Amino acid sequence: MATAPRPRTTTRDREDLTRRLTAWLGTRLPGAKAVRVTVPESNGLSSETLLFELDHPEPPVRACALRLAADPAAYTVFPVYDMARQYRTMRLVAEHSDLPVPRVLWLEEDPGPLGAPFFVMERVRGRVPPDVMPYTYEGNWLHAADDAERERLEAASVALLARLHDQVPPEEAEFLALPGEGDALRRHVTAQRTYYDWVVDGRARSPLIEAAFDRLEELWPRDPGKAVLNWGDARIGNVVYDGFEPVAVLDWEMAALAPREVDLGWTVYLHRFFQDLTVAFGQRGLPDFLRRDRVEARYARLTGHTPRDMDFYTLYAALRHAIVMLRIAYRQVHFGEASVPADPDTLILHHGSLRAMVQGSYWD
C-alpha cells in the first residue's frame, strides 16, 4: 500500500457536489453558501469527506466538514453506511464524556440532495498522522518528533480510550448493540463473519481468514467482561492533534458495544501493521512507539482494568483488518486497478503477520 498507487476514493464530481451542497444549505440556513470546497487527499475508502466554509453572516461554525455515505454504485467497502448512527454516536460521546468530538450540526438522511445520506460537523484544524505514506516512515511530522513528544502523543491517545470506556454509560449506547445471539463479543465476531461472507460473495474465499476465525474459537476468552462503548476504528490516524495533544476524535462508523479489549487490540495492531510494513521496506520505523506492553500498562493505570486475552484481541484486529483489505483489493479489481492472483490470501497486505498470529508465533 505504501508504494502502490492509492486506490480511488470517489467516483463523484466535486463541482456538482458543491452546487448541490449550496442548494441544500439554503434549506437549513437561508442564504448560506458552501465556499472553498475541497476533498482531502486522505479521503477514506468508506465514507467520503468534503471540507468547506460557510459563507453566511451568522454561521453556527465557519469551517465545516461533511461526511457523505459512499456511492452505492462504487463497489463500497462496507455493505451499510448508517450516517444517522454515526451522528447519534458523536452526540452521545460529546454529551457523556470529555473527549474532543467535533460538534455535529446537521444530519440529512434523504439521499436526494447529494445522492446519499450525510452529516455536517465543525472542522477542527490540526494535523493527523498519515496513512499514506504511513506515519512510521521517515519524512513526516510524527516520525521527525523526538521521543518525549511521541511519548506525550501516545499517553494522550491511550487516555482517549480509557475515558471513552469509563465515561459513556453503556446503557445510553444500546442502539449500538449488534444483532444476534450471545454476549457482545460473540455478536461482534458474528457480525465480522457476516461481513466476510459479503466480501467474498461470488469471489474466491480466503483460507487464511477462515483459519483465523477457527483460531479465534480456540483462544476465546473465558470471561470477556462487561461491554462498553467502543470507538471501533481506534487508531491515531483518526485523531486530529494540536502539537501532540488530541483536539478531535473522528470516524465513528465502526462504533459498537463490545469488550474494552476490542478497541485496545485494534489500536495495538493497526500501529503494528504500519510498523511491519515500514520494516519490510527497509526502514526502522517507530519500534518503541505504541508497543503492546506499553499500551496495556498505560490503560491499566488509567482505568484499573488490566487488559486480558490480548493474543485473542490482537488476532481479531488483524483478522478484521484482513477482511477490509480483501474488500479493498477486490474493489481495485473491480475498477481495473489490480487482478486476482492464484492465491487470494496474497491480496491481504499483512498476510504474513496474520498467518504468524494464527500459528502463535507473531508476538515471540
Automatic annotation (TrEMBL):
Segments forming domain Aminoglycoside phosphotransferase: 82-282
Pfam families, sorted: APH
Superkingdom classification of source: Bacteria
Gene3D superfamilies assigned to the protein according to its UniProt record, in alphabetical order: 3.90.1200.10, Phosphorylase Kinase, domain 1 (3.30.200.20)
The protein, known as: Phosphotransferase family protein
Species in which this protein is naturally found: Streptomyces spinosisporus
Lineage: Bacteria, Bacillati, Actinomycetota, Actinomycetes, Kitasatosporales
